[in-house]
């Protein structure tokens, strides 16, 4: 269990092929004392390994990546590991086929306190 300032941290994994975006997102999220960035992966293949690392509670996953879709990654990992909350991000609209999976979605342009709030809500902290 990771802690900072006496409280349990929300371990976050970021999976996005746009490394500049992923690093900016990590820097923003790291400003929140409740969040610990576990790692960044630039592909679906690397992301599948990263989100299963100890300490990951929330995975932020890009919908569109060159080596596969984030929706497929969410379904593959979610089928075997229910402890990780999945939050898909995209510059485009929310994929229509997400609703049944109970997966949260946030637009990439929401790089603000709203996205930090979505991470906390995904992990069950309100």
Task: Annotate the secondary structure layout.
Blueprint: E1 3-4, E2 7-8, E3 10-15, H1 19-30, E4 35-41, H2 44-50, E5 58-62, E6 64-65, E7 68-69, H3 70-80, E8 85-90, E9 104-107, H4 113-122
Parallel strand pairs: 3-4, 3-5, 5-8, 8-9
Antiparallel strand pairs: 1-2, 6-7
Structural class, please? alpha/beta
Mind summarizing the main beta sheet? 5 strands, parallel
- Judging from the principal axes of the Cα atoms, what is the shape? globular
Widest sheet, order of strands: 4-3-5-8-9
Notes on the protein architecture:
- The chain is α/β, with parallel strands linked by helices.
- The chain has a domain at 10-36 and 49-55 and 67-92 and 99-126.
- Helix content is 32%, strand content 29%.
- It has helices at residues 19-30, 44-50, 70-80, 113-122, and strands spanning 3-4, 7-8, 10-15, 35-41, 58-62, 64-65, 68-69, 85-90, 104-107.
- The chain is globular, with a radius of gyration of 13 Å.
Short structural summary:
The protein has 4 helices and 9 strands, in the order βββαβαβββαββα.
């Amino acid at each position: 269990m990771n802690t900072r300032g006496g409280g349990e941290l929300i371990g976050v994994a970021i999976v996005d092929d746009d490394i500049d975006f992923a690093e900016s997102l990590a820097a923003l999220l790291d400003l929140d004392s409740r969040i610990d960035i576990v790692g960044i992966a630039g592909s679906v293949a690397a992301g599948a390994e990263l989100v299963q690392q100890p300490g990951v509670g929330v995975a932020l996953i890009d919908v569109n990546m060159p080596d596969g879709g984030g929706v497929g990654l969410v379904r593959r990992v979610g089928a075997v590991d229910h402890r990780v909350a999945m939050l898909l991000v995209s510059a485009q609209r929310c994929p229509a086929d997400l609703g049944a999976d109970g997966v949260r979605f946030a637009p990439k342009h929401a790089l603000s306190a709203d996205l930090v709030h979505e991470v906390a809500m995904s992990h069950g902290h309100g």
